[in-house]
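Regression test case RT-17, inverse folding.

Input:
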């Protein structure tokens, strides 16, 4: 089937019994390419579009993973306008449905939409037209866009579809943004889960699920929820089961970078504002924030900081529907150019070039997918600092797989060396169906090479090697673990920020945490002997700066020497840092032996000190000044963290 000119008749597959949907010619191939030109006014297919369309016309169940902006819509719109029958498209967002319906109407395709906002008389008319089909005197409806809520709640829609099906007029169900089905994914929507009923009620109607993000765990879950058969590769598909397609997920116009985020809120806003003004002044962008409150605060402060030059808008699940639609319009018109949002914003949005912070690599990939859909260069920036980890930890508490996902995200954020594309490829290829090279070549599914080439455009690829230094931090680690163990043995609790202060000899010292910390002041009396214990007995303070210490602590969490420990109260979840079993193995050794290299060697990469800064006028600034500054920062941190952990 490698021979492009070989003609294959549907149902009568090649000698091997496998159908190559991507590169074979079918009896309907001429009609497919004519429809592409005549109806859609396009010249050629992109990525795996042609294969998906062939499999769709061949009435197969399909799962298609293609990057955002790759052109998934065409893979179901084109088969829908070829031949007769009704295609139902289930899509999660009103704005997205509007955009597609408008675009289809412009090119003369008969399509309608039905959402919670559609009036009863309009609905009546649509139902009548559906039931009548081509014999109704009006043109047959080819595509009907609906929200998942409509499918799960409207008995009338289902009974109409049953009638359409009885007369043989129901062609296909399309599930857009299909990752929303799985609770294991990053954007679960309960109404999507109810789409299980489609295969039960309409066992013979093909389902086409399309998305930009599926990991090893979400794919089997998706198949189960939609009751689809086992998958087979679209380039060598069996005659039964679900046909699977994936296109290279890497988009060369997206420039990934992680920037260090200042520790206090005010400087963080200034850092983002400066970055936006310097790189994308007047252009469109999205800042993804962790919570609704964050989105509101960032929007307001960024507007203030820029004196109104950055026109911000707010978008999250708590914003009223009419307001959301209004923001979409203002955004498209350019009256708002920087949307501060939670994940609720952006499914299917056509612009964007700024980023903030995410709880999982899958989510981050999906969010960044909204940038540069026009193919123009766009930046996907993650503003990150070690302390965010604690905040994120408390947010993922209770999520299925939350902590392993967060660890992947932190690994990505902390990594100053690995190409970002390679990192994504490694993460997504944990799936048996997406080989690591799926990031490179469209034929990657069948390819045997498992390596991914570097992108040459991300921060890590472009980084000057002399701007980072890898240090042996075994002795520092030993000291940190000693302190963590001491605190634990004494029944104290430390957050990441506390521990960072302690090991650097700040923040009230050990007694502050163990003897007088967190509401225990005065109640707990330590005997005279213990009171004398100070940092010197545990090896002395470590000599790293605040940022490097935080980075090292996260690094130790990722290596497994330290772990998060969750304490849920009625109001919040607090995350403390505790030593793990692995820590015991290292601290059993003497510090001299560790220093002499008689243990495992632990390394950590840090940004090299900025030569410009240290040689500037301020170079003579004394250490004390710096310490004073650090302390001020620490105070601000505490202000910020109030009431959290
Ligand atoms: P997705 O749903 O995968 O994020 P869309 O279906 O919204 O992407 O398509 C993104 C853009 O690409 C649209 O503007 C669409 O018109 C365009 N497009 C899709 N297929 C092609 C093609 N074969 N050639 C040129 N442009 C295309
Ligand atoms: Mg889409």
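Golden output:
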């Amino acid at each position: 089937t490698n021979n492009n000119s070989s003609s294959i008749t549907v149902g009568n597959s090649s000698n091997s019994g496998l159908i190559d949907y991507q590169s074979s010619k079918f009896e309907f191939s001429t009609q497919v390419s004519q429809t592409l030109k005549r109806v859609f006014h396009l010249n050629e297919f992109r990525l795996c579009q042609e294969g998906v369309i062939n499999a769709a016309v061949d009435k197969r169940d399909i799962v298609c993973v293609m990057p955002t902006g790759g052109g998934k819509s065409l893979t179901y719109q084109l088969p829908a306008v070829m031949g007769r029958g009704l295609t139902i498209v289930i899509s999660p967002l009103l704005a997205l449905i509007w955009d597609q319906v408008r675009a289809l109407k412009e090119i003369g395709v008969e399509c309608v939409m039905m959402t919670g906002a559609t009036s009863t008389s309009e609905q009546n008319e649509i139902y009548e037209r559906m039931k009548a089909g081509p014999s109704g005197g009006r043109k047959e409806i080819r595509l009907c866009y609906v929200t998942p809520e409509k499918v799960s709640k409207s008995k009338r829609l289902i009974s109409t579809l049953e009638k359409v099906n009885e007369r043989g007029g129901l062609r296909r169900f399309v599930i857009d943004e299909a990752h929303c089905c799985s609770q294991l994914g990053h954007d679960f929507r309960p109404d999507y889960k109810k789409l299980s009923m489609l295969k039960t009620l309409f066992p013979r109607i093909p389902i086409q699920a399309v998305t930009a993000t599926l990991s090893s765990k979400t794919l089997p879950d998706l198949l189960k929820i939609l009751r689809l058969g086992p998958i087979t590769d679209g380039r060598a598909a069996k005659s039964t089961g679900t046909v699977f397609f994936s296109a290279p997920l890497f988009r060369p116009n997206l420039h990934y970078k992680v920037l260090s985020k200042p520790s206090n809120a005010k400087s963080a806003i200034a850092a983002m504002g400066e970055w936006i003004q310097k790189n994308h002044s007047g252009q469109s962008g999205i800042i993804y924030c962790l919570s609704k409150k964050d989105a509101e605060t960032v929007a307001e402060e960024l507007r203030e900081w820029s004196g109104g030059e950055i026109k911000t808008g707010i978008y999250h699940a708590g914003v009223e529907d009419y307001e959301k639609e209004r923001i979409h319009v203002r955004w498209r018109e350019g009256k708002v150019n920087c949307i501060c949002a939670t994940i609720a914003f952006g499914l299917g949005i056509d612009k964007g070039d700024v980023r903030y912070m995410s709880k999982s690599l899958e989510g981050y990939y999906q969010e960044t997918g909204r940038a540069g859909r026009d193919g123009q260069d766009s930046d996907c920036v993650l503003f990150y600092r070690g302390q965010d980890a604690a905040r994120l930890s408390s947010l993922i508490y209770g999520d299925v797989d939350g902590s392993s996902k967060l660890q992947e995200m932190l690994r990505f954020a902390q990594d100053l060396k690995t190409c970002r594309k390679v990192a994504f490829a490694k993460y997504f290829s944990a799936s048996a169906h997406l080989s690591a090279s799926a990031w490179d070549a469209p034929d990657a599914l069948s390819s045997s090479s498992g390596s991914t080439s570097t992108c040459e455009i991300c921060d890590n690829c472009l980084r000057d090697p002399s701007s980072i230094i890898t240090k042996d931090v075994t002795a520092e680690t030993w000291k940190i673990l000693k302190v963590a163990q001491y605190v634990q043995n004494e029944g104290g609790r430390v957050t990441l920020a506390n521990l960072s202060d302690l090991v650097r000899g700040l923040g009230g010292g050990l007694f502050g945490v163990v003897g007088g910390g967190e509401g225990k002041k005065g109640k707990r009396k330590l005997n005279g002997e213990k009171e004398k214990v100070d940092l010197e007995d545990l090896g002395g303070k470590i000599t790293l700066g605040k940022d490097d210490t935080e980075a090292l602590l996260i690094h130790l969490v990722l290596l497994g020497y330290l772990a998060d420990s969750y304490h849920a109260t009625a109001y919040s979840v607090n995350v403390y840092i505790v030593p793990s079993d692995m820590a015991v193995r290292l601290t059993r050794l003497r510090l001299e032996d560790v220093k002499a290299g008689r243990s495992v060697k632990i390394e950590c990469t840090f940004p090299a000190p900025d030569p410009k800064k240290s040689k500037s006028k301020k170079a003579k600034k004394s250490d004390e000044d710096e310490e004073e500054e650090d302390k001020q920062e620490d105070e601000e941190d505490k202000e910020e963290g109030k009431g959290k952990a």
